Amino acid sequence: MSAIAVGGWLAQPLRFYQASIGKKIVMAVTGAILFGYVVAHLLGNLQIYLGPEQINDYARFLHSKPGLLWGARLVLLASVVLHITASVQLWALKRRARPIAYVKKEDLGASYASRTMMWSGPIIAGFIVFHLLHLTTGGAGLPFRELDPYHNVIYGFRIFWVSAAYIVSMVLLCFHLYHGLWSMLHSLGMDDERRRPGLQRLAAGFAIFIGAGNISIPVAVLLGLVR
Amino acid sequence: MNLTLHVWRQKGGGSEGRMVRYEAKDVNPHMSFLEMLDVVNEALTARGEEPIAFDHDCREGICGMCGFMINGVAHGPQRGTTICQLHMRHFKDGDELYLEPFRAKAFPVVRDLVVDRSAFDRVIAAGGFISVSAGSAPEGNSVPVPKDDAEKAMDAAACIGCGACVAMCPNAAAALFTGAKIAHLARLPQGQPERYRRVRGMVAQVHQEEFGHCTNMGECEAVCPKGIRLEVIALMNRDFLRAS
Amino acid sequence: MTLDARCPSGPVETRWQRRKFDMKLVNPANKRKFQVIVVGSGLAGASASATLGELGYNVRCFCFQDSPRRAHSIAAQGGINAAKNYQNDGDSVYRLFYDTVKGGDFRARESNVYRLAEISLNIIDQCVAQGVPFAREYGGTLENRSFGGAQVSRTFYARGQTGQQLLLGAYQALERQVATGQVRMFPRTEMLDVVVIDGRARGIVTRDLTTGKIESHMGDAVVLATGGYGNVFYLSTNAKGSNATAIWRAHKRGALFANPCFTQIHPTCIPVTGDYQSKLTLMSESLRNDGRIWVPLKKGDPRPPHQIPEAERDYYLERRYPSFGNLVPRDVASRASKAECDAGRGVGPSGYGVYLDFTESIGRLGRDTIAERYGNLFEMYDRITGEDPYTAPMRIYPAIHYTMGGLWVDYHLMSTIPGLFVIGEANFSDHGANRLGASALMQGLADGYFVLPYTLGDYLASTKLEKVDAGHSDFRAVENEVVCQIKRLLEIRGQRTVDSFHRELGKLLWENCGMARNASGLKGALEAIRGLREEYWQNACVPGTGEEFNQSLEKAGRVGDFFELAELLCYDALERNESCGGHFREECQTPDGEAQRDDENYSYAAAWEFRGVGQTPALHQEHLSFDYVHPSQRSYK
Ligand SMILES: Cc1cc2nc3c(=O)[nH]c(=O)nc-3n(C[C@H](O)[C@H](O)[C@H](O)COP(=O)(O)OP(=O)(O)OC[C@H]3O[C@@H](n4cnc5c(N)ncnc54)[C@H](O)[C@@H]3O)c2cc1C
Ligand code: HEM
Ligand code: HEM
Ligand code: SF4
Ligand code: F3S
Ligand code: FES
User: Fold this and answer.
1) Interface TM-score (ipTM) > 0.90
2) Helix (H) or strand (E) holding C357
């Protein structure tokens, strides 16, 4: 853990990052960006209930602004990379911090979600890759038509295992956010004893909203409510 | 009552350790946990074996010297209680108990259940103080401190430095301990001049000592014998952010 | 040997000021050339180490715990006195001085006590500035309470954890010096001897408790801040590790030991429940404000308390002291409980306990009021005993709590070995035969922050010290003795555990040199202790080796010293044919059973000189004169 000797303007951010709290804050900020994206994306996705025109127009609108699209993609990509890098580093730190495991260990305060962040996170990452191949590039070998997300979504989700994969991933996302959102507020120092119950409820609410909102789509397709 | 104990035995820092099984017979429910171990140790000593080493001093729950894991919980099953204040009436005949030392890279085992927590001292030395040399203090009442602030500062200052938070944390993080000291001093007017310097110094030292990172799991809060709350960690994070 | 206390003369109010001016100063540039050894990191040791570090001395500080923050001072609950008169209730430095001399039953030095009262003001300022979270009024000013029967509210407190907070303040100041390199901290290191070269203390020999390594540390002066010796009684409210080894070994090297028999017994502790009992827990005295103390009239009454009708209860304090009732002073309350229990009327499994009953006050004031006043104490009681004091009366019994005696020091806190200073509970200086509540913390911090830094400087500035290093032959010789002593303990390989010896020793002392003492009991105890000591050195069982972390060995060394100290306690108690403060000689009581002091013959501090193990020690007297507070007999009838 020796300090890297870097002069000039880089030194300060590096020192910041070297402290584990610095990494945490990076996690939180990138997590927040990703969360923002997921919320926006959900709102976009829910337009599917408004019929093919609505969502396809939306997609065409987005694709008609390459600057905006690529800008957003870059920010997202950077966030994912930083988020994952920090999480892997923190995870490595944790392994080092307790080299000998307990023979017996209970969990008292930690929620299931908080204990499984390092499972839910990577699975979500895997999901994203699959998801991009499925709906963005069409490389997943599933029904795909350029700039017709309505078609892609409906025909994709009619395949049971695809829907199942989405649903499982969304449940994990819900877990990830259930702990992640409150944790993010806590990491950024916005939590205190008085606000905690409220913040935790808020985080849970958002997590469930996002999980349920997304899950509703494959479920609706499978039930034939959206066709 | 009779109990079965599985105790981590390790001769010294460098040597290998293992769990060893002991029987504790005729345990009186009024004994404290450490008194129960005293009796086990008396029997071991009389048999010419080496007694189980464990740290303790005040036996009143205030010095922070005692502490190990009982069945995977730091300080054992009774919330808000150090091991020295835990009594045998909370156990029942036939219980099987696993006693292990606090485990963290930053807390190397000294012997059996004894660990070295001097990392905590170094974290305090890195900024957990107010720089005021003897003789330079102003009149005690010259700076009023709102009652609420004093109470909140006291809540955080109650930390006994036992290390249970680290032991219990899945990441072996020292966030609760460090946050408690930062919060204690940040909540008082006297602590303001060095507020941000302090948090920078202490956080850097925590890292140097190779504690893990906090992922807000809340295990620490659940075992803290002095009821230190997670909010001290949020305060530390906030101050660290401002300090950077 | 003549004992020169070096007290200043003249008006008591200016003695310390004048002495400070007369003292020699060490040139700032020279301070770093001096090495000071401080043994102990309690209030006294931590404050001294921090302050000496701030001044620029090189300090080495030692403690046996794993961190300096764990010193036994951490356990003090009640508070710390200071004559701030914030409550405008008539307090003053003079009143605190007066109360302390009187409370000490006229066996303390006026000069010292006045200085203590004067410095109490600075202590509060210093601690507030360090961030000690004292209780506050809504207006933000410091709050006080009245403590231990004082008529003014001068006690500052931080919840029930005053000692903890004050110690953390001192500890943090100490760590600040550790970070600058001015102080080097040696935790888990036990001092086993002091090294005296050419008549001056020049260092110590220690054992690293983790590795067993024996080491020498050179110093230009040595400060002992190692706390009290209450654990000689085995069961006490002290921490398990508290011991007399440092002061005892210094005593054996020539430092006189003063007033060893002045020990304080606290009436409200949780009673012993069985042979396994390892220590006793104090319950705040304030409980006696609302609780009524009683025992069943019938001996060995097996009924649970609520089945014993009023007519068959004896509220013995209310009966014997109608005007003070349950609020009689600590020593009186303690002796009365002992008398009841000795007569067979004690309660609880061991028969050594009396009831402290809140039924009446709960009825009168309501459960909520009682909970508000004593909630945390009730909870603590419940945690330890598993009984709910709201529904069943508490059981209490007295326990050893504090030792007023200690190494003899002069006004400069220097022992009879030049260069060996003794501060805090380890010395005998300020409390006479009885300490007032909330005054020990005050004394520890006064010594460490504000007295020693001056007097130590004066010693260094006015003494020409030869250069020595830890390789000096005298160091080698002492190291050798230490190693031999350890070897001797390890080679006994006897049948009996060290704890069982210690328990027996404690019982002997408690029964014969505890709350009440008499000549024949003391003589018997001296015999018995000697016998037990001899058995100890033949039959103690100390497993393991010296080259490892070995808690049995640590204990064995300490208990070995307790044996010798116990004898001295008895000698001192036997010699003092009067009752004063914590020392009650059954032969010396007024017709109605109260303590009878003898100022004519015993107005002195008894300073004992060691003359060999098993040898009768030699008594030296420091006569005490009272120019300001004139001796009067205590009365509370
Ligand atoms: C339960 C309880 C409650 C109390 N409440 C109050 C109160 O409310 N108000 C009040 O004024 N007083 C109170 N007192 C008394 C007061 O706490 C003590 O007298 C005081 O704290 C002693 O401080 P000290 O610095 O002299 O010693 P300690 O705090 O006992 O420190 C001794 C130090 O010496 C070290 N040491 C000892 N031997 C060796 C050795 N051989 N080698 C190396 N290091 C050694 C230890 O490691 C420790 O650091 C209370 C005492 C008890 C037991
Ligand atoms: C490989 C992928 C991922 C991994 C390994 C991962 C892992 C983690 C971990 C370990 C945390 C730390 C929790 C904490 O410190 O309390 C975390 C937090 C978080 N993650 Fe992820 N995650 C991944 C992907 C994602 C994605 C895709 C999103 C968004 C949809 C996301 C959103 C969040 C949020 C909002 C937080 C809270 C930040 C904080 O705790 O400070 N994560 N993640
Ligand atoms: C049922 C839930 C979801 C549906 C129906 C859905 C649908 C879509 C569709 C149709 C696209 C393609 C848009 C286009 O290229 O025109 C898309 C892109 C994308 N989705 Fe989703 N999505 C879902 C859940 C998620 C989740 C949970 C995440 C992240 C954790 C996510 C991340 C992305 C990303 C990163 C893209 C690429 C955006 C880009 O083109 O830059 N999606 N999604
Ligand atoms: S925060 Fe709690 S658990 Fe951690 S060291 Fe302090 S008292 Fe112990
Ligand atoms: S359990 Fe560990 S992860 Fe943080 S909240 Fe407590 S330090
Ligand atoms: S022994 Fe002091 S806290 Fe347990």
Assistant:
1) yes
2) strand C354-357
